[in-house]
Design a protein that fits this description.
Blueprint (H helix, E strand, L loop, with lengths): L2 E4 L9 E3 L2 E9 L4 E7 L2 E9 L4 E5 L8 H14 L6 E2 L15 E2 L1 H6 L7 E5 L5 H9 L4 E5 L3 H13 L5 E4 L3 H4 L8 E7 L15 H10 E11 L2 H11 L5 E7 L8 H8 L5 E7 L20 H6 L4 E4 L3 E12 L2 E10 L2 E9 L4 E4 L7 H16 L1
Parallel strand pairs: 8-11, 9-10, 9-12, 10-11, 12-13
Antiparallel strand pairs: 1-6, 1-7, 2-3, 3-4, 3-17, 4-5, 5-6, 13-15, 14-15, 16-17, 17-18, 18-19, 19-20
Length: 389
């Protein structure tokens, strides 16, 4: 992640503007953590200021980190220059200047909640990695929409660059967890879903992409005759996944071993040289599903006195059946305003966010938390903590 270290650092007066960025406020926690609210064009980013024994570390906060790293690098450069800080170590200056333009191929979840509509067939790849298979599918199927899901930022940057270089215009890239993404798609709207070489998570099986819930949601979005394709080099993952697939009703299953595809990743090429077995499970959906309601946003309707909340704050994890809310930390901006850092959602997948508490308003920061099934249930736990505990 972009950052810089410095032996000396003097914080500016807020609000301040410098270069292409503006810096609105700083928030302090009792643990000594500091967060700086920053803005660059239409992007809201928090910077973290961490003081160690004899130095400072200034970096982007993970919760608001943009998918395109150039945006964060620009904000950090502007903050460095605003504060006249001389870094002792830094990775925010690129030899080749990166564009600040947001790629038209990179889409937010708000786009899928509010605007995404198509009468074309949809292909989805979960965890596209280097993007070799994703790009191949897009070029092979120019009349289809190819959606790539990935949370690894360098992989996202690489595919966005290739879309520009190869003039591919039917790819949509999404920085989001696949286990929740499918909730945003219409029923029976997807032709194929590819899950190629997912992380096996042998020690943390709850983090696996393939699960009964994911397969059920895949069946809902798949057209009649649509397919979900798993490809893995893990014996354990294959056996586990087959056990999940075989539970399903009204599907057709095919299993292949060491099948050659039209395109393979560099890792797959390496495994083939090592004579490692590769397994495919293809599930064909045989039924139509009912339509579902579109997903809205989570919001708060009441207000609360920040000082009262700060006085009774404690770190706590609240749990329901299959969902939770972890109240992590509290930050003070001034006597009437502050931030509550929270993580919440399903036990197998969660959101990380801040609750921004003002004198006359309470909102999420970023204020774009979508009302998925598990988020709605966890949101009630957060409201109970703020107003009832």
């Amino acid at each position: 992640m972009p950052n810089f270290h410095a032996k000396e650092f003097v914080e500016p007066v807020y609000p301040s503007n410098y270069g292409k960025s503006s810096f609105e406020f700083v928030a302090h926690s009792n643990r000594g953590d500091r967060l700086v609210m920053s803005h660059l064009e239409d992007n809201d980013l928090l910077l973290q200021i961490n003081k160690n024994k004899d130095s400072y570390l200034i970096k982007g906060d993970k919760i608001t980190r943009p998918s395109q790293v150039a945006l964060l690098q620009q904000v950090l450069r502007d903050y460095r220059d605003l504060t006249n800080t001389i870094p002792s170590n830094s990775n925010i200056d690129s030899k080749k200047e990166k564009t600040l333009k947001v790629s038209p191929f990179l889409k937010t979840m708000e786009y899928f909640a509010d605007s995404f509509k198509t009468d074309k067939n949809i292909l989805i790849e979960v965890g596209f990695g280097s993007g070799r298979h994703l790009l191949h599918q897009a070029k092979k199927n120019p009349d289809k929409i190819v959606i790539g899901l990935e949370i690894h930022k360098p992989s996202i940057e690489q595919v966005l660059k290739q879309c520009e270089l190869q003039k591919i215009d039917n790819i949509l890239v999404v920085d989001y967890d696949a286990r929740t993404f499918l909730e945003f798609l219409s029923s029976n709207s997807v032709a194929q879903i590819f899950v190629h070489f997912p992380v096996p998570w042998d020690k943390k099986p709850h983090r696996r992409v393939i699960s009964e819930a994911f397969i059920n949601e895949s069946k809902r979005v798949l057209s009649q005759g649509g397919t979900l394709e798993l490809r893995t080099d893990s014996d354990n993952y294959f056996e586990y996944s087959f056990g999940e697939f075989i539970k399903q009703q009204k599907v057709e299953l095919h299993v292949n071993k060491n099948k050659d595809l039209e395109i393979s990743s560099k890792y797959e090429d390496r495994w083939k040289k090592q004579e490692k077995d590769i397994y495919d499970i293809t599930m064909t959906n045989q039924e139509l599903s009912e339509d579902i309601l579109s997903i809205g946003r989570l919001s708060f309707t009441e207000t609360i006195d920040f000082q009262e909340l700060k006085e009774r704050f404690e770190e706590v994890t609240l749990r329901g059946e299959g969902f939770f809310a972890h109240i992590e930390n509290i930050f003070e901006i001034d006597e009437n305003e502050g931030l509550l850092r929270v993580s919440f959602g399903a036990s197998q997948r969660n959101e990380h966010n801040y609750v921004h508490i003002k004198k006359d308003e309470v909102t999420y920061l970023p204020n774009n938390v979508l009302a998925t099934k598990d988020n709605e249930k966890a949101h009630k736990l957060i409201k109970d903590f703020i107003w009832n505990m």
